[in-house]
Amino acid sequence: MKKALVIGGSGFMGSHTADELSKRGYEVTVFDRFHSPWLKVGQKMIIGDYMDEESLSKALQEISILYHFAGIADIELARKNPLATIDANVLGLTKVLEAIKKINVERFIFASTMYVYSNFGSFYRASKQAAEIIIEAYSEHYGIDFTLLRYGSLYGPRAQNWNGIRRFASQIVEEGEVQYSGDGTEMREYIHVEDAARLSVDILDSAYINQAITITGQQLIKVDDLISVLFEIAGQPRKVKYQGKSSTPTHYGHTPYRYTPKAAKKLVPQQFVDLGQGLLGVIEDIHNEQEISGN
User: Fold this and answer.
1) DSSP state letter for 27
2) SS percent in the chain: helix, strand, coil, step 5
3) How far is CA 262 from CA 68, 148, 265, in A?
4) What would the DSSP string read from start to end of 63-123?
5) CB atoms within 10 A of CB 4
């Protein structure tokens, strides 16, 4: 049984990938600064910070597969905190690479973003572009096999409050209105997090060694149409306030493709969670959370 370590495994994408690894027979250890509320039977939890070399080194013992999901992923937070973003997403990543160059890790998998193709995304995009280049350099000099996973628009259970669909659904359920910093014509190719997790483990096949992989869905939809579907699922009259394109300097409109780094293969799930069913699940999660909190 191969051992996999998931740095940032208490988070959205990391926790679902940890679950998929467990389903496929890997011995999974979650490494994060806080205990995962979604830890499964058979998974091990290590509380630690990947910026701390000593705790990271201990967690890496006897590990074959290493996933790195940790760092700042909120674009707006990154825009407002460039130093913290570079520290977490670039320096932190480099510390992980320094640790694994001394041991025999079979594969290093890095969670990147489709924003690396773009001139949008501010310091978040810049930090991921820099991280990818650094990974390639470490691979060249130290023989570290890697896979870069460039995720598209993710949604589903366990999403952070700043996640796009989660934010829309919360506004509808809690306020009866959506406020959006755009004009609604923006296009997104959404992929359910569980589908993305399956693809994130599929790439452990040897065909994806030292490759960049775009992980996205087959469900392209305009933001305005998505919001309409959410209102309908929630059973509420549509009420939207758009703030225009000029208020979204950090997000792309119809496509992220501007700057082209390392060429990537694109993976899409052949069987996938239907967008409508996935959106219903998001609405249900928010209602359940309200019942638990007593609101």
Assistant:
1) E
2) 45, 20, 35
3) 19, 10, 10
4) -SEEEE--S---HHHHHH-HHHHHIIIIIHHHHHHHHHTTS--SEEEEEEEGGGGSS-SHH
5) 27
Q: Which two tokens stand for residue 136?
A: 């390639």
Cα first-last separation, the chain:
45
Identify the CA nearest to 180 among candidates 115, 235, 220, 227: 227
Residue 255 confidence (pLDDT) above 70: no
Kindly state the DSSP code that residue 162 receives in the 8-state scheme: T
Tell me the three state secondary structure of residue 206.
helix
User: Does residue 257 sit in helix, strand or coil?
Assistant: coil
Nearest by Cα to 234 from 162, 175, 172, 164: 172
Domains and CATH numbers, the chain: 3-293 (3.40.50.720)
What amino acid occupies position 24? R
HSE-CB at 237 with a 13 A cutoff on CA atoms is 1
CA distance linking residue 218 with residue 272, whole number of Å: 9
The DSSP H or E segment spanning 54 is helix 53-59
Q: How far is CA 120 from the centre of its chain?
A: 17
Instruction: Judge whether 163 and 12 are in contact, CB under 8 Å.
Output: yes
Helix (H) or strand (E) holding 214: strand 211-215
Distance CA 44, CA 55 (A): 15
Q: How many CB atoms lie within 10 A of CB 185?
A: 12
**Residue 250 pLDDT greater than 90, yes or no:** no
In tens, the pLDDT along 64-117 reads 999 999 999 999 999 999 999 999 999 999 999 999 998 889 999 999 998 888
Q: What is the spatial distance between Cα 125 and Cα 222, in angstroms, rounded to a whole number? A: 22
